[in-house]
Amino acid sequence: MEYRLPFKEYNKALRKGKLLGLRCNSCGAITCPPKMSCQECSGLDLEIVELSGKGSIVTFTTSYVAPQGRENELPFTIVMVQLDEGPWIMGNLIDMEPEKITFDIIGRRVKLGSRVYPGDMFSGGALARPVFSFDD
Questions:
Q1: Nearest Cα to 130, choosing from 96, 61, 83?
Q2: pLDDT digits (tens, 9 = 90+) for 118-135
Q3: Which long-range contacts (CB under 8 A, 24 or more apart) does 75-78 make?
Q4: pTM above the 0.90 mark?
Q5: Which of 28, 71, 24 is nearest to 43 (CA)?
Q6: Which of 3, 15, 17, 83 is buried most, with the most CB atoms less than 10 Å from its CB?
Q7: What value does the mean pLDDT of the chain take?
């Protein structure tokens, strides 16, 4: 069985500012980031869709421990965002210094961007990752 949307293609689109997901033709749910099957019903009849990249912050954490090679980026805040299309996706919040963040950001509207981060000894090289900025 082949992935309908391989990570390589997902990452290539993210580098261009496009967020791709998979719509299940059985139940209508959207899965993002892409997986082998629908995250709701495990269906395999999936089609690639472009998502808006807009949503609301559900929760967050601030990291004071850096991945290898990114020690100069500390601290950084990671947000979990519920996209308007339904799925939750994780990314870094880039609009606010981590020291100034409070629980007031929960529920705030954000929009997607992307950044390319260098690889480390555990990855296959530089990859684009979702980042979010405030949309209100």
A1: 83
A2: 776 676 777 888 999 998
A3: 75/99, 77/101
A4: no
A5: 24
A6: 83
A7: 90
